[in-house]
Amino acid sequence: MREKGEGYDHRRDEGRHGTRAAVHAASGGRLGAAHPRQEGPTDLRLVPPALAAWATSAVTLDAAPAWVTGTAVGCLVVAGVLMTLRVGRMGRMGRVGRARRVPGARTGGRSGWPAVTAAAVLVCVAAAAVSAGLHGADLRRGPLPGLAERYATVIAEAEITSDPRLVRPRVRGPAPAPTAVLFEADVRRVEMRDGATVMTRTPVLMVVDVERRRSSSSAFSASSAGDRPSPWLTLLPSTRVRVTARVVPPADGGDIAAVLRVRDPEVPEVVGEPSAAQRLAGRLRAGLREATDGLAPDARALLPGLVVGDTARITPELDEAFKETDLAHTLAVSGSNLTIILVLLVGPPGLAQRVERRGLAPRLGISLRTTALLGGALTLGFVIVCRPDPSVLRAAACGAVALLALATGRRRSLIPALATAVLLLVLYDPWLSRSYGFLLSVLATGALLTLAPRWSAALRARRVPPRLAEALAAAAAAQALCAPVVAVLSARVSLVAVPCNLLVEFAIAPATVLGFAALATAPWAMPVAKALAWCAGWPAGWIADVARTGAALPGAGVDWPGSWTGAALLALATVALLLAGRRLLRHPWWCGACGVLLLLAVVQPPPLTRVVTGWPPPGWRFAMCDVGQGDATVLAAGAGTGVVVDAGPDPVLVDRCLRTLGITRIPLVVLTHFHADHVAGLPGVLRGRQVGAIETTTYQEPVDQAEFVRREAAARGVPVTRAAAGEERRTGGLSWRVVWPPADPAVVPEGPNDASVALLVRSAGLRLLLLGDLEPPAQRALLRSPAGPLLAGVDVLKVAHHGSAYQDPGLLSRTAPRLALISAGADNTYGHPAPGTVAALRAMGAVVLSTDRDGALAVTGEGAELGVAGD
After folding, report:
1. Beta strand pairing status for 690-691 and 180-191?
2. Which residues make Cβ contacts (< 8 Å) with residue 704, sequence separation at least 6?
3. Rg of the Cα trace of the chain?
4. CA distance 581 to 587
5. Which of 141, 365, 406, 840 is the most buried (most CB within 10 A)?
6. pLDDT tens sequence across 674-708
7. 650 confidence band (pLDDT: 50, 70, 90)
8. Is 869 helix (H, G, I), strand (E, B) or coil?
């Protein structure tokens, strides 16, 4: 504050005090009140240094030490020159002011700020280069990089730096890849083959190939661990383990020097216990998992992820649904978690723009300084429980910025705060500069601080309710800025992201608050924690339902180029859409018409879709869904009714196919055998449909997939039966006979493929033969079976095993199909369909179509008339 000496104007000071009093009176006359309109222009001086440090870190992580040193020294020298010139200029202007005796002359004013800003940018560039250079050198330090090039086997002692996570394998053909436990670690000591011990500190990724147990978790289990979970999953960060591992180079670089592949021993060799803070955090997280054990599957999986970022129970299906709807941010620790908790302490968002201090603290008589200390303690506890890795620190920093925006209502002044957070975090961990998650977090926070308030005010000016306007503006602003980056990651643009985020917005806060309450009470009062978790399960289940429903909509998203060129095109399209939207807001009728068109494009009602696209064709009898490398077919049995044969590898794809076909009732699901590319999509078939029963083959291999089918059926109360040759069924105008496998239990197939259920179907005078994945031995045995004579001259053949080269010529000659359909994935690595098989079928006069080239296929016609249509 300036001393009251020469040039001091009492009337000006009184005027300023009067203005401040008027502002406080306008805001309610309470301590801490602030009027958002009294702020000056946005201060952007910290933005260039933050962006410069961000870019420098991204570039110099892989740079040579000499280049890093030269960059840092050069920037510091230039910054010193600029500041020297700045000081000299200030001195000259000061002397001129004194010589002219100008009272209160300003020495420099704002004319010198560009030089200061440029110097600050150069200093930040130098600091970022040094920090990135040091972090990049960690990857080249020690013996591990050289050992990785030779794929050597070593004995290493490593300190775990992240939570172990079970990697659920993706379905790639008949069975998923072996399950593995992954975690990040710092190797502290390496024992060489010659007996020498080298001390180091090298970041690595450890991959433990866990043994596949009978009841262990798999890609299809609803929980993260089965009856005998791997002991590696119980390890806490900061634990030291001693392993024998093979060192391999990292696949795509990143922030690790090597990958250590560890054979799964019975028990990991622990040589150092975790820290007290991590033990406490582990106890709290384990208590939350136990408290949620009795909840519905979706709530049980989602609540720990929503509260503390524990995604171990998230199934691949649920994870994909959240990605399709751009709700993936709710599965990871984000700043909103911390903001919600601190808002309870400081005040509700609805009053934050008018009053700085509300909430529990002032109601309990807690002073402002004590409130700040409590907020700091909560933030520290949040970081410890959610693990102090860079992503959690980023979430804490951005959450604090978002809280400050809500609590003070001074959104314009928060841009410097966000820039400061970015600068400090990038200097602390330069690898964040290459993190898409960090980029998305900064963009979303920036959208909330800049675009959202303006859009909210514009909506309120058009008579939109304030709460709805704020929520809609926040969701739309975050989507507008983040969509180009998301498109790079997923090669897809979600059309349901904004409505889905709006629908879950009101459920996130209660789920988070109740979840944290359950987390805090679980170690001391488990019954209370379970009651709180049960309450939190309702909003958590709602969030999961919104994600699943949005992802299942036929027009939930559109494919987009997954490159930065595609991101630029999407950004231009977004700007054009916003400009057009401003004009449309002046015409409510046009807005309504566009909204209806968008709704129809997303929902795609089957009657309207049929009229516009011609799919599915009227009177279709049999449909082959395009589910990639797998099988999923449907036999029409009446309006909205169909018998489903196999479920494909992806629940989302088969669900989308059934929705397009208008199937809501399924009397029977036939799973020809238990390979993953035929059964992994079962949850998508069962979702939201009335299912009478599931019929499977008698050969219960592979065991884990067979258990998965029984578990999914039991969870929905659907009975499971087993098919055998000679069984006949009918529903509506559809009838079928099971022709394989034989009912004799003494006949043991050579494998799951030869145990496939084969069906001879009759529909409106058409005869269809569905062969599952039968191999030549079973195909020859089928010809010799009692059903063999019935197979002569079928109309439609679902070619066995995705049209592989292994077909029995005798069976193909006996069936002599008019139409041969093959289900195969585009660009699959198995060579399906085999050119020889396709040529043999065409030589017999059959029309051959496959989903990898023709998309989904539907058979139409009656009797002698036969038609086929592609999607």
Report:
1. unpaired
2. 212, 214, 216, 218, 220
3. 32
4. 10
5. 406
6. 998 899 889 889 988 899 999 999 888 888 888 88
7. confident
8. strand
Which strands sit side by side in the sheet containing 728-731, from one edge to the other? 728-731, 734-740, 758-763, 766-770, 796-798, 819-822, 847-850
Q: Is the dihedral of CA 457, 462, 464, 468 positive or negative?
A: negative
Q: How confident is the model at residue 359 (pLDDT cuts 50, 70, 90)?
A: low
Average pLDDT in the 150-173 region? 79
Terminal Cα-to-Cα distance of the chain (whole angstroms): 74
Cα separation of 397 and 383, whole Å? 10
What percentage of the chain carries pLDDT values higher than 70?
Answer: 80
Cα–Cα distance for residue pair 319/327, rounded to 1 Å: 9
pTM: 0.75
Structure token pair of residue 109: 């004013």
- CB atoms under 10 Å from CB of 815, counted, come to 24
Answer for the pair 632, 657: CB distance below 8 angstroms, yes or no.
Answer: yes
What is the four-CA torsion angle of 101, 103, 106, 107, rounded to 10 degrees? 30
Task: Work out whether the CA dihedral 170, 172, 174, 177 comes out positive or negative.
Answer: negative
H or E element in which residue 441 lies: helix 436-449
Strand-pairing partners, residue 805, are: none
Place of tokens 């630029």: 568
Tokens describing residue 778: 């079973």
**Residue type at 573?**
A
Residue spans of alpha helices (H) in 585-718: 588-603, 606-613, 651-661, 676-679, 682-686, 703-715
* Residues 577-599 pLDDT 10s: 888 877 777 777 777 787 788 88
pLDDT digits (tens, 9 = 90+) for 162-202: 888 877 655 555 555 567 888 889 999 888 766 778 888 88
All residues at 6 or more sequence positions from 183 whose CB lies less than 8 Å from its CB, including other chains: 160, 161, 162, 163, 164, 165, 205, 206, 232, 235
Secondary structure class of 158 (helix, strand, coil) = strand
pLDDT in tens, 712-740: 898 888 999 998 888 889 988 899 999 98
* H or E element that contains 16: helix 10-26
Structure tokens that stand for 690 in this block: 């009335």
Residue where the block lists tokens 């089918």: 709
**Residue-wise pLDDT tens digits, 406-415:** 455 555 566 7
Q: Are strands 197-209 and 240-248 parallel, antiparallel or unpaired?
A: unpaired
Q: How far apart are CA 697 and CA 741, in angstroms?
A: 7
Q: What is the dihedral of CA 861, 769, 684, 693, to 10 degrees?
A: 110
- Exposed, middle or buried: residue 526 (CB in 10 Å: 0-12, 13-18, 19+)? middle
Interior CA angle at 593 toward 588 and 599, to 5°?
125
Give me the mean pLDDT over the 593-612 stretch. Answer: 78
- The band of 227, judged by pLDDT with boundaries at 50, 70 and 90, is very low
